[in-house]
Amino acid sequence: QVRLVESGGGLVQTRDSLRLSCAASGRPFSSLTMGWFRQAPGREREFVAAISETGHSAYYRDSVEGRFTISSTSAESTLYLQMNSLRPEDTAVYYCAAVARGLYGGDWYTRDQRYAYWGQGTQVTVSS
């Protein structure tokens, strides 16, 4: 079992920055592919970013590419999402997710049903 606890959300203005954190426990961090998803009111949960179990490969949805950076530290078993140049359309509940497999073999990591473990979510609100 993996426990994920997010933190770092809040209310910011357009073009501000935020860094989300996700502390993981229960399995070796190096065995987990990790991802960030988000869900806005009235919309389906969507993929934001994913990082490989080694921390060497990262993937993003097009709308956040160049603005968001996903990273991880195995020593602290923590996942991060640095969000810069925030826009009102980034407003959502952000979820950390994990699955005990390597990040290879197609784009499965963009599908939320492929992740086994989820955090409780943290609200990010960007005002215009």
What is the typical, i.e. mean, pLDDT? 95
Oligomeric form:
single chain
Elements, N to C (H/E): EEEEEEEEEEE
If you compute it from the alpha carbons, what radius of gyration comes out, rounded to the nearest whole angstrom? 14 Å
Total number of beta strands: 11
Structural class: mainly beta
| Largest sheet report | 7 strands, mixed
The helical percent reads under 10%
Give the distance, in angstroms, between the N- and C-terminal Cα atoms.
40 Å
Low-pLDDT regions: none
Overall geometric form: globular
Instruction: Give the amount of beta strand, in percent.
Output: over 45%
Count of DSSP H/I helices: 0
Structural description of this entry:
The protein has 128 residues and is mostly beta strands. It is 0% helix and 48% strand. The chain is built from no helices and eleven strands. The protein has strands at residues 3-7, 10-13, 18-25, 33-39, 46-51, 58-60, 68-73, 78-83, 92-99, 117-118, 122-127. Strands 2, 4, 5, 6, 9, 10 and 11 form a seven-stranded mixed β-sheet that branches. It starts with a strand and ends with a strand. The model has no long low-confidence stretch (mean pLDDT 95).
